Amino acid sequence: MPVIITPENYEEWMNPEIKFDAIKHLLKPYAGKMIEHPVSTELNNAQNKKLDLDAPIAPETPAQAKFVFAP
């Protein structure tokens, strides 16, 4: 399960100087609404640098990758 960090907590979460015990309070269930839609399987490759890989696409196969995001 991915961690969903809100913008006001980005700096704290990404700070390598902070010990995990000091930021584990940020690990909590996401309370907002989430939706899902099929996305390109190219999203699974970290070498792909395109910005629109999370854009909705028409499902191509039953095993089509899905991406869940918070609107």
Give a quick rundown of the structure.
The protein is low in regular secondary structure. Helices cover 13% and strands 11% of the residues.
What's the pLDDT, averaged over the residues?
81
The assigned structural class equals little secondary structure
What summary fits the major beta sheet?
Answer: 2 strands, antiparallel
Strand order of the largest sheet: 1-2
The end-to-end span amounts to: 17 Å
Secondary structure topology:
Blueprint: H1 10-14, H2 20-23, E1 35-38, E2 66-69
Antiparallel strand pairs: 1-2
Report on this model:
The protein has 2 helices and 2 strands, in the order ααββ. By secondary structure, the protein is mostly loops. The chain folds into 2 domains: 1-30, no CATH class; 32-71, no CATH class. A two-stranded antiparallel sheet has the order 1-2. The protein is elongated and about 45 Å long.
What are the key terms here?
2 domains; little secondary structure; 2 strands; two-stranded antiparallel sheet; 2 helices; 71 residues
